[in-house]
Amino acid sequence: MKNILSFLILFFTVNSFSQIKILSWNIENLGKSKTESDLNFTANIIQEYDIIAIQEVVAGYGGAQSIAKLAGILNKKGTKWDYSISDPTSSSSYKRERYAFLWKTSRVKLQGSTWLEKKYGLVIDREPYFATFKIDKKVITLVNFHAITKSRQPETEIKYFKFLPQEYSNLNLIIVGDFNCPQSHTVFNPLKKMEYVPVFQNQKTTLKQKCKNDNCLASEFDNIFYKKNTLNYIDSGVISFHKKFNSLKEARKISDHIPIWFEFSIK
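^ that's the sequence the OP posted. Answer follows.
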């Protein structure tokens, strides 16, 4: 009986360690406009996840500083966090941004250096940001992306993602972010044919200006794509943080997108 109990404890300990929860969030204009209160609120939302991918970090002064402050707040909550911030993307100064990753050091280890995908810098305004993480002897690479706005046809950028699996054939890619485009668009078909599947379908992730009959979400823009033969899907969801505010106007001071999350284990 004692041996069975020890085995079960070991099984669930190993199993829970290999289960990872990632969260992706476009935090609108994450920079000097965010107050200490905003950052505290954000930290409370994301603290239970293992890896955080953030889009729309301000390229100029205040963006990197806000990520450092956010990591500092998370570290005061009893779990050690580390973070990485990209250089500004290569697009025009008006649309230049940074990306960021934050992660619990007890759960995952950053492997090597992070990098912006410069190869497509001329055809993708905000080229994706890569980070490879080691999880209990296995490895994943997150591809963090923020596409151009819907009015500028984000599919003209997303079409280049079909080349990434071949270009990084030795990496287990998970593509996360704000695509400004629903997963049902045909531009994702080449990825789907390579067995990359979207975590979310028919899930709106952007906030309207005003709720209509409790309907506060507008567009299916944020998603996570993973290769189904390399990961085991466990769970996923969105965080309706706006419901904690009295109005959408207040909520939108945090962001005009809600966070999405995905729990998985590596095969």
